[in-house]
UniProtKB/TrEMBL annotation:
Record: residues binding substrate: 207, 219-222, 257, 259, 262
Name this polypeptide is given: Ubiquitin carboxyl-terminal hydrolase
Region (Disordered): 75-98, 494-516, 762-785
Domain of life: Eukaryota
Gene: USP5
GO molecular function terms attached to this record: cysteine-type deubiquitinase activity; zinc ion binding
EC number: 3.4.19.12
Protein species of origin: Astatotilapia calliptera (Eastern happy)
Record-level GO BP terms: protein deubiquitination; proteolysis
Length: 848
């Protein structure tokens, strides 16, 4: 061991002991998905603490000169047989009893048991040093190396902090009203059973107000079940804050809701409060499901979940290149589904996977923080097939059993941490909207593709909006960039209206056996709703210098290589409560959108004058700077930018109380001319998907607005990023000035304000109907691809649950004419792909 001891002595200065704040990657390779459980184990650099798989450790040594690595290998322990195992050899899954993850009674999180082997390896010859070997070495070597080994093994790995966190939806806080709750001496006594709503006689979901003893029904749920909101209305009338759900009272407690705190709460004086109305907690038995049980049941809605996951059939597991599962990191199925689809698209494959060796060679010293490296790592992990292997069953030593559905798969922990960093939603373990994540990721690709190919161009297309003033028949043309077609769902076009009405009637009558009927909506009706003209009742016409009625028609100014269609299932009810439409749509396998091609200005059609509407202004400010349509040399705006708008504070407040961002509320009131809450609400609902929805209000026609940044202080790096997307420097400058020099907002702003950028004004250069398909010039503005509008379906993402904030996502992708279901780690041949229940649909252009 003398040679190894001398070798360790020679590299002792490069061996560090982890300090607080050091990032220790001891569970996952920075460049691949190798782990200590993988063949060859994981090598942790004892200087930088980067984890490296056996295929990359030599490359890291050659590049950095580092020689000392801690080699960690883990082998799975055989599971002990349990008396409660099912006949299949696997214990039956327990039904969750808590709305929780990773704790007793919650949704199960598998915890594997491993045997671990740790030793120091010296490169390039891979000489090994065990803990026993260290005992014979000089004190200085033994102490430093032992401290480093112990520090690495004791440190919390980076991936550990990103794994599924224990989360308990039942953790409730003591209500601020509990200690001093006012209770009326009105003689009300509540019987131990037989409760009915005092308003509508409903017998389920019954709540008693703890102040006056009123027995009323609870809220109506997203799916139309539940109560009729009478308990909530009673609170709004009286201000009595606490209510208990009758039927959930046991000696251990009950469901108590605080309307003022808008949450389930604890009431430490609940026995006393119930006794006031003659209820003895110690004698009560539970007859109603608790709110937690209801939420669990809603999150496992049988019909939708079983159909989308194809639970009723035995699915054949698939393994191999392009058939790799992804582990769920705790509500990360939205990310898994989107990335599975994206890496079936050639643009993403060629950008990141085909060049992976070059990308890794050029990676920075910390590749875990490099976007290109982590995307390439993910893409290669999905497409290579290296991780598409069955999960080994410890009980089958020879592996002779049939393959299980679950794969070893990949855990995209580094990727999720990187793309979600700094984002208020994607950095959390909460469920998210797959459509919002897709746009977020495309935005990141745009920002990181400053040179070379940009795979997001596969989705990018131009939309032409044609607005016609009904009073003068003059038109206005604008263009904007988009990546997703949002398809409305016209519920009034359902083909099974009678069945829906009958099911609703039976539910209203309290028939618990009423079947759940799903609305059948023709896809043609959705497309008609998308393409039909929209009536604008408050359109400010520059031709008549006043508000009038106009029609707006939306068409495709270009057709992308890959078309994404979002079914707008998530909407708001009449009470502004978000809900999901339970619909079935006969989405076709092939699609021809040629009839929706924009034609531009028509022969003989007159355009509306380019004159901005007058801004709202304070009554005591003299109107200055009314300059006509051209302005003067100092100011190119129609009105003086010094005029400040006056907004109806009450309308702004009403919108804010509904949960909308303050700046969005201000814009809604401004752009509807202080005409009231209805107009402002309509504007808000129609602009919720705008990228700059919550950005500060920038007055139209102002050369500089509140929060703008002088040109001389703009970031050259930000300017270069936007210019690399195909925009001019002037356009980039305008976008950054309008968004306070914030790059993310500037990118969103520029894509949603193409008509505000002078060099992108296409109203004069619109296409004529006589132009041929192949003879069109590329549309102005950012680079877009164009071609025939004929497509075929190759993938769709489905959502199960009542809203985007809960539930589960699954992807179906067509591989070699076979539909494949990607359900996190399960990858199987699809028997009945539920194409009618999808949320996001992905089409590719059909070659002619």
């Amino acid at each position: 061991m003398a040679d190894v001891g001398e070798l360790l002595m020679s590299v002792l200065s490069t061996i560090r002991v982890p300090k607080p704040g050091d990032r220790v990657h001891k569970d996952e390779c920075a460049l691949s998905f190798s782990s200590p459980e993988s063949e060859g184990g994981l090598y942790v650099c004892m200087n930088s603490f980067l984890g490296l798989g056996s295929q990359y450790v030599d490359r890291h040594h050659a590049r950095t000169g580092q020689k000392a690595y801690l080699h960690i290998t883990r082998t799975r322990k055989a599971k002990k047989e349990d008396d409660g195992n099912s006949g299949s050899g696997h214990p039956p899954k327990k039904k969750p009893t808590r709305l929780a993850i990773g704790i007793e009674g919650g949704f199960d999180v598998e915890q594997e048991q491993y045997e671990e082997d740790v030793k120091v390896v010296i490169l390039p010859d891979r000489q090994e040093v065990t803990s026993e070997d260290l005992a014979t070495m000089p004190d200085v070597v033994r102490e430093r190396v032992s401290l480093s080994m112990a520090g690495i093994m004791a440190a919390d790995s980076v991936s550990h902090t990103l794994q599924v966190q224990q989360w308990d939806g039942e953790v409730r806080q003591e209500s601020k009203h509990a200690a001093d709750l006012k209770q009326l001496d009105n003689g009300v006594k509540i019987p131990p059973s037989g409760w009915r709503c005092e308003v509508c006689d409903l017998q389920e979901n019954i709540w008693m107000n703890l102040t006056d003893g009123k027995v009323l029904c609870g809220r109506r749920y997203f799916d139309g079940s539940g109560g009729n909101n009478h308990a909530l209305l009673h609170y709004q009338e009286t201000g009595y804050p606490l209510a208990v759900k009758l039927g959930t009272i046991t000696p251990d407690g009950a469901d108590v809701y605080s309307y003022d705190e808008d949450d389930m709460v604890l009431d430490s004086k609940l026995p006393e409060h119930l006794a006031h109305f003659g209820i003895d907690m110690m004698t009560m038995e539970k007859t109603e499901r608790t709110m937690t049980e209801l939420e669990i049941a809603v999150n496992q809605r049988v019909g939708e979940w079983e159909v989308i996951q194809e639970s009723g059939t035995t699915l054949r597991p698939l393994f191999g290149p392009g058939l790799t599962g992804m582990k769920n990191l705790g509500n990360s199925c939205y990310l898994n589904s989107v990335m599975q689809v994206l890496f079936t698209i050639p643009d993403f494959q060629s950008k990141y996977v085909s060049n992976i060796d070059k990308i890794i060679d050029e990676a920075p010293s910390d590749p875990t923080q490099d976007f290109k490296t982590q995307v390439a790592k993910l893409g290669y992990g999905l497409l290579s097939g290296d991780y598409s292997k069955p999960v080994p069953d410890p009980g089958e030593e020879n592996g002779a059993a049939e393959p299980r559905g679950d794969q070893i798969g990949i855990a995209p922990q580094m990727f999720k941490a990187l793309v979600g960093r700094g984002h208020p939603e994607f950095s959390t373990n909460r469920q998210q909207d797959a459509q919002e994540f897709l746009l977020h990721f495309i935005n990141m690709v745009e920002r990181n593709c400053r040179s070379g190919s940009n795979p997001s161009e596969a989705f990018r297309f131009l939309v032409e909006e044609r607005i016609v003033c009904q009073q003068t028949q003059k038109a206005k043309y604008t263009q904007r960039v988009d990546y997703i077609v949002q398809l409305p769902v016209p519920m009034d076009q359902a083909t099974n209206t009678e069945e829906l009405q009958e099911a609703e009637r039976r539910r209203e009558e309290g028939d618990s056996s009423a079947p759940t009927v799903r609305a059948q909506i023709p896809f043609t009706a959705c497309m008609a709703a998308l393409s039909e003209p929209e009536i604008l009742t408050d359109f400010w016409s520059s031709a008549v210098q006043a508000k009038t009625t106009a029609t707006k028609t939306t068409r495709f100014a270009s057709f992308p290589d890959h078309l994404v269609i979002q079914i707008k299932k998530f909407t708001f009810g009449l009470d502004w409560v978000p809900k999901k439409l339970d619909v079935s749509i006969d989405v076709p396998d092939t699609l021809d959108l040629s009839g929706l091609r924009a034609t531009g200005q028509q022969p003989g059609e007159e355009l509306l004058p380019e004159v901005a509407p007058p801004p709202l202004m304070t009554p005591d400010v003299e109107v200055k700077g009314i300059l006509g349509s051209h302005g003067n040399e100092e100011d190119d705006s129609l009105y003086s930018p010094l005029l400040s708008p006056v907004l109806d504070d009450s309308t702004v407040s009403q919108l804010c109380e509904m949960g909308f961002p303050l700046e969005a509320c201000r814009k809604a009131v401004y752009y509807t001319g202080n005409t009231g809450i209805d107009a402002a609400m309509n504007w808000t609902m129609s602009h919720m998907d705008d990228p700059d929805f919550s950005a500060p209000l920038v007055l139209p026609g102002c050369s500089s607005g509140p929060g703008t940044t002088p040109t001389e202080s703009l970031s050259e790096e930000h300017l270069a990023t936007i210019v690399s997307m195909g925009f001019s420097r002037d356009q980039a400058t305008k976008a950054l000035r309008a968004t306070s020099n914030v790059l993310d907002r500037a990118v969103d702003w520029i894509f949603s304000h193409l008509d505000d950028l002078e060099s992108m004004d296409v109203s004069e250069g619109g296409r004529s109907a006589a132009e041929s398909e192949g003879g069109r010039d590329p549309p102005p503005g950012p680079r877009v691809r164009d071609g025939p509008g004929k497509y075929e379906l190759f993938a769709f993402i489905s959502h199960m649950g009542t809203s985007t904030m809960c539930g589960h996502y699954v992807a179906h992708i067509k591989k070699d004419q076979q539909w494949v279901i990607f359900n996190d780690q399960k990858v199987c041949a699809s028997e009945k792909p539920p194409k009618d229940l999808g949320y996001l649909y992905f089409y590719r252009r059909v070659a002619e």
